[in-house]
Amino acid sequence: MAEPRDPEAKRILRQEDPAEGGGAFPPRPPRGTGRRFHGAIAHRLGTAILSGEFAPGDRLSGEIEFSEALDVSRAAYREAMQALAAKGLVESRPKAGTRVLPRSRWNLLDPDVLGWAFAGEPDMRLIRSLFELRAMIEPGAARLAAERRDEEDMRRMGDALAAMRRHTLGTEEGRAADRDFHDALMQATRNDALIVLSTSIGAAVHWTTRFKQRARALPRNPIPDHARVHDAIVAGDADAAAAAMQARVDLALDETRAAIEARDDPQA
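Above: the chain's sequence. Below: its structure in C-alpha coordinate form.
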Protein backbone atom coordinates (compact mmCIF):
# COMPACT_ATOMS: atom_id res chain seq x y z
CA MET A 1 0.00 0.00 0.00
CA ALA A 2 1.25 3.50 -0.79
CA GLU A 3 2.05 5.80 2.14
CA PRO A 4 -0.49 8.57 2.78
CA ARG A 5 0.47 11.79 1.04
CA ASP A 6 -0.45 13.97 4.00
CA PRO A 7 2.28 14.18 6.71
CA GLU A 8 -0.39 14.65 9.38
CA ALA A 9 -2.12 11.50 8.23
CA LYS A 10 1.18 9.61 8.42
CA ARG A 11 1.61 10.62 12.05
CA ILE A 12 -1.94 9.62 12.91
CA LEU A 13 -1.52 6.25 11.21
CA ARG A 14 1.49 5.51 13.43
CA GLN A 15 -0.23 6.42 16.68
CA GLU A 16 -1.41 3.71 19.00
CA ASP A 17 -4.69 3.65 20.83
CA PRO A 18 -4.20 2.37 24.40
CA ALA A 19 -7.95 1.95 24.75
CA GLU A 20 -7.89 -0.55 21.90
CA GLY A 21 -4.90 -2.46 23.22
CA GLY A 22 -2.30 -0.83 20.98
CA GLY A 23 -1.56 -1.28 17.32
CA ALA A 24 -1.34 1.14 14.44
CA PHE A 25 -4.41 2.70 12.91
CA PRO A 26 -5.58 0.34 10.14
CA PRO A 27 -3.88 1.38 6.88
CA ARG A 28 -6.98 0.72 4.78
CA PRO A 29 -9.99 0.82 7.09
CA PRO A 30 -13.32 0.09 5.46
CA ARG A 31 -15.17 3.26 4.63
CA GLY A 32 -17.97 4.00 7.04
CA THR A 33 -19.54 6.57 9.31
CA GLY A 34 -20.19 4.39 12.36
CA ARG A 35 -19.71 5.81 15.84
CA ARG A 36 -16.69 3.62 16.57
CA PHE A 37 -14.99 4.56 13.32
CA HIS A 38 -15.29 8.34 13.47
CA GLY A 39 -14.60 8.04 17.21
CA ALA A 40 -11.24 6.45 16.37
CA ILE A 41 -10.36 9.39 14.11
CA ALA A 42 -11.39 11.85 16.82
CA HIS A 43 -9.34 9.90 19.37
CA ARG A 44 -6.18 10.10 17.32
CA LEU A 45 -6.55 13.74 16.39
CA GLY A 46 -7.57 14.62 19.95
CA THR A 47 -4.55 12.81 21.35
CA ALA A 48 -2.28 14.62 18.88
CA ILE A 49 -3.69 18.00 19.95
CA LEU A 50 -3.52 17.27 23.69
CA SER A 51 0.06 15.98 23.36
CA GLY A 52 1.19 19.16 21.61
CA GLU A 53 1.81 17.51 18.25
CA PHE A 54 -0.64 20.04 16.85
CA ALA A 55 -0.30 23.40 18.56
CA PRO A 56 -2.96 26.07 18.98
CA GLY A 57 -3.30 27.92 15.69
CA ASP A 58 -2.14 24.99 13.57
CA ARG A 59 -4.28 24.32 10.51
CA LEU A 60 -5.45 20.74 10.02
CA SER A 61 -5.77 19.11 6.63
CA GLY A 62 -8.92 19.76 4.68
CA GLU A 63 -11.75 17.29 4.48
CA ILE A 64 -10.95 16.02 1.00
CA GLU A 65 -7.19 15.82 1.54
CA PHE A 66 -7.46 14.06 4.89
CA SER A 67 -10.16 11.59 3.86
CA GLU A 68 -8.24 10.63 0.72
CA ALA A 69 -4.95 10.29 2.63
CA LEU A 70 -6.47 7.93 5.19
CA ASP A 71 -8.96 6.37 2.77
CA VAL A 72 -11.86 7.20 5.08
CA SER A 73 -15.20 8.63 4.12
CA ARG A 74 -15.59 12.38 4.17
CA ALA A 75 -18.67 11.91 6.36
CA ALA A 76 -16.59 10.09 9.00
CA TYR A 77 -14.00 12.86 8.94
CA ARG A 78 -16.69 15.55 9.28
CA GLU A 79 -18.25 13.76 12.24
CA ALA A 80 -14.84 13.50 13.92
CA MET A 81 -14.27 17.23 13.42
CA GLN A 82 -17.69 18.00 14.84
CA ALA A 83 -16.83 15.97 17.93
CA LEU A 84 -13.55 17.86 18.38
CA ALA A 85 -15.28 21.20 17.84
CA ALA A 86 -17.93 20.36 20.44
CA LYS A 87 -15.13 19.83 22.96
CA GLY A 88 -13.50 23.16 22.12
CA LEU A 89 -10.38 21.73 20.48
CA VAL A 90 -10.86 22.98 16.91
CA GLU A 91 -12.84 25.50 14.94
CA SER A 92 -13.78 25.32 11.27
CA ARG A 93 -14.44 28.41 9.19
CA PRO A 94 -15.20 28.79 5.50
CA LYS A 95 -12.02 29.42 3.49
CA ALA A 96 -9.90 29.50 6.68
CA GLY A 97 -10.19 25.75 7.21
CA THR A 98 -9.96 23.93 10.53
CA ARG A 99 -7.56 25.24 13.15
CA VAL A 100 -6.63 24.15 16.65
CA LEU A 101 -8.11 26.51 19.23
CA PRO A 102 -6.21 28.05 22.16
CA ARG A 103 -5.89 25.86 25.25
CA SER A 104 -8.21 28.21 27.15
CA ARG A 105 -11.06 27.04 24.88
CA TRP A 106 -10.51 23.32 25.46
CA ASN A 107 -13.08 21.53 27.59
CA LEU A 108 -10.50 19.86 29.79
CA LEU A 109 -13.18 18.39 32.05
CA ASP A 110 -14.77 16.43 29.23
CA PRO A 111 -14.09 12.72 29.94
CA ASP A 112 -12.95 12.12 26.34
CA VAL A 113 -10.54 15.06 26.46
CA LEU A 114 -9.09 13.81 29.75
CA GLY A 115 -8.67 10.38 28.19
CA TRP A 116 -6.85 11.90 25.21
CA ALA A 117 -4.60 13.91 27.54
CA PHE A 118 -3.59 10.81 29.49
CA ALA A 119 -3.19 8.65 26.37
CA GLY A 120 0.22 10.31 26.04
CA GLU A 121 2.24 12.02 28.73
CA PRO A 122 0.08 14.68 30.43
CA ASP A 123 1.89 17.80 31.51
CA MET A 124 2.20 18.68 35.18
CA ARG A 125 0.16 21.82 34.61
CA LEU A 126 -2.90 19.74 33.77
CA ILE A 127 -2.33 17.31 36.62
CA ARG A 128 -1.90 20.15 39.11
CA SER A 129 -5.05 21.83 37.78
CA LEU A 130 -7.08 18.64 38.25
CA PHE A 131 -5.92 18.18 41.82
CA GLU A 132 -6.53 21.83 42.65
CA LEU A 133 -10.06 21.42 41.33
CA ARG A 134 -10.56 18.25 43.34
CA ALA A 135 -9.22 19.92 46.49
CA MET A 136 -11.72 22.76 46.09
CA ILE A 137 -14.73 20.56 45.29
CA GLU A 138 -14.45 17.15 46.88
CA PRO A 139 -14.04 18.05 50.58
CA GLY A 140 -17.06 20.35 50.38
CA ALA A 141 -18.99 17.67 48.53
CA ALA A 142 -18.14 15.14 51.24
CA ARG A 143 -19.40 17.61 53.85
CA LEU A 144 -22.73 18.01 52.05
CA ALA A 145 -23.01 14.27 51.50
CA ALA A 146 -22.63 13.64 55.24
CA GLU A 147 -25.45 16.09 55.91
CA ARG A 148 -27.83 14.97 53.16
CA ARG A 149 -27.20 11.29 52.36
CA ASP A 150 -29.98 8.77 52.52
CA GLU A 151 -30.10 4.97 52.75
CA GLU A 152 -29.69 4.50 48.99
CA ASP A 153 -26.61 6.76 48.90
CA MET A 154 -25.02 4.81 51.74
CA ARG A 155 -25.81 1.54 50.00
CA ARG A 156 -24.21 2.71 46.75
CA MET A 157 -21.07 3.97 48.48
CA GLY A 158 -20.84 0.79 50.54
CA ASP A 159 -21.19 -1.42 47.46
CA ALA A 160 -18.54 0.58 45.60
CA LEU A 161 -16.15 0.38 48.55
CA ALA A 162 -16.67 -3.38 48.80
CA ALA A 163 -15.93 -3.76 45.07
CA MET A 164 -12.75 -1.67 45.43
CA ARG A 165 -11.59 -3.97 48.23
CA ARG A 166 -12.48 -7.07 46.21
CA HIS A 167 -10.78 -6.02 42.98
CA THR A 168 -8.12 -3.47 44.14
CA LEU A 169 -7.35 -0.28 42.23
CA GLY A 170 -4.82 -2.17 40.13
CA THR A 171 -7.65 -3.53 37.99
CA GLU A 172 -10.21 -1.96 35.67
CA GLU A 173 -12.98 -3.36 37.86
CA GLY A 174 -11.50 -1.70 40.93
CA ARG A 175 -11.06 1.63 39.18
CA ALA A 176 -14.66 1.44 37.92
CA ALA A 177 -15.75 0.93 41.52
CA ASP A 178 -13.67 3.95 42.51
CA ARG A 179 -15.59 6.05 39.96
CA ASP A 180 -18.85 4.64 41.32
CA PHE A 181 -17.83 5.65 44.85
CA HIS A 182 -17.11 9.24 43.84
CA ASP A 183 -20.28 9.40 41.75
CA ALA A 184 -22.41 8.15 44.66
CA LEU A 185 -20.80 10.73 46.95
CA MET A 186 -21.56 13.56 44.52
CA GLN A 187 -25.14 12.35 44.08
CA ALA A 188 -25.54 12.38 47.85
CA THR A 189 -24.87 16.13 47.98
CA ARG A 190 -28.32 16.81 46.44
CA ASN A 191 -26.63 19.76 44.75
CA ASP A 192 -27.46 19.87 41.03
CA ALA A 193 -24.36 21.89 40.11
CA LEU A 194 -22.05 19.43 41.88
CA ILE A 195 -23.84 16.44 40.39
CA VAL A 196 -23.16 17.81 36.90
CA LEU A 197 -19.43 17.64 37.74
CA SER A 198 -19.56 14.04 38.95
CA THR A 199 -18.64 12.53 35.57
CA SER A 200 -15.69 14.88 35.18
CA ILE A 201 -14.45 14.28 38.72
CA GLY A 202 -14.79 10.53 38.20
CA ALA A 203 -12.81 10.72 34.96
CA ALA A 204 -10.07 12.79 36.65
CA VAL A 205 -9.81 10.21 39.45
CA HIS A 206 -9.73 7.33 36.95
CA TRP A 207 -7.03 8.73 34.69
CA THR A 208 -4.75 10.01 37.45
CA THR A 209 -4.97 6.59 39.12
CA ARG A 210 -4.05 4.84 35.88
CA PHE A 211 -1.22 7.33 35.34
CA LYS A 212 0.24 6.61 38.79
CA GLN A 213 0.42 2.91 37.93
CA ARG A 214 2.38 3.34 34.69
CA ALA A 215 5.82 3.52 36.28
CA ARG A 216 5.17 1.28 39.29
CA ALA A 217 2.50 -0.19 41.52
CA LEU A 218 0.67 2.18 43.84
CA PRO A 219 3.04 2.89 46.76
CA ARG A 220 0.24 2.54 49.32
CA ASN A 221 -3.26 1.16 49.45
CA PRO A 222 -5.69 4.10 49.07
CA ILE A 223 -8.80 2.09 49.93
CA PRO A 224 -8.57 2.72 53.71
CA ASP A 225 -8.62 6.46 52.89
CA HIS A 226 -11.87 5.96 51.00
CA ALA A 227 -13.21 3.92 53.91
CA ARG A 228 -12.60 6.84 56.28
CA VAL A 229 -14.57 9.13 53.97
CA HIS A 230 -17.34 6.54 53.74
CA ASP A 231 -17.52 5.97 57.50
CA ALA A 232 -17.70 9.71 58.24
CA ILE A 233 -20.52 10.18 55.71
CA VAL A 234 -22.46 7.21 57.11
CA ALA A 235 -22.02 8.66 60.62
CA GLY A 236 -23.28 12.02 59.43
CA ASP A 237 -20.06 13.71 60.64
CA ALA A 238 -19.63 16.54 58.13
CA ASP A 239 -16.33 17.85 59.55
CA ALA A 240 -14.73 14.41 59.59
CA ALA A 241 -15.95 13.66 56.07
CA ALA A 242 -14.47 16.90 54.70
CA ALA A 243 -11.16 16.33 56.51
CA ALA A 244 -10.90 12.71 55.33
CA MET A 245 -11.55 13.72 51.73
CA GLN A 246 -9.02 16.56 51.90
CA ALA A 247 -6.43 14.13 53.22
CA ARG A 248 -7.24 11.68 50.39
CA VAL A 249 -6.83 14.32 47.68
CA ASP A 250 -3.54 15.56 49.21
CA LEU A 251 -2.16 12.01 49.37
CA ALA A 252 -3.24 11.33 45.78
CA LEU A 253 -1.33 14.39 44.59
CA ASP A 254 1.78 13.27 46.50
CA GLU A 255 1.50 9.82 44.92
CA THR A 256 1.14 11.35 41.45
CA ARG A 257 4.23 13.51 41.95
CA ALA A 258 6.13 10.40 43.02
CA ALA A 259 4.94 8.60 39.88
CA ILE A 260 6.22 11.46 37.73
CA GLU A 261 9.60 11.35 39.48
CA ALA A 262 9.77 7.56 38.99
CA ARG A 263 8.94 8.00 35.31
CA ASP A 264 11.63 10.64 34.85
CA ASP A 265 14.21 8.69 36.89
CA PRO A 266 13.68 4.91 36.55
CA GLN A 267 16.53 4.31 39.02
CA ALA A 268 14.73 6.26 41.77
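DSSP finds twelve helices and three strands in the chain.
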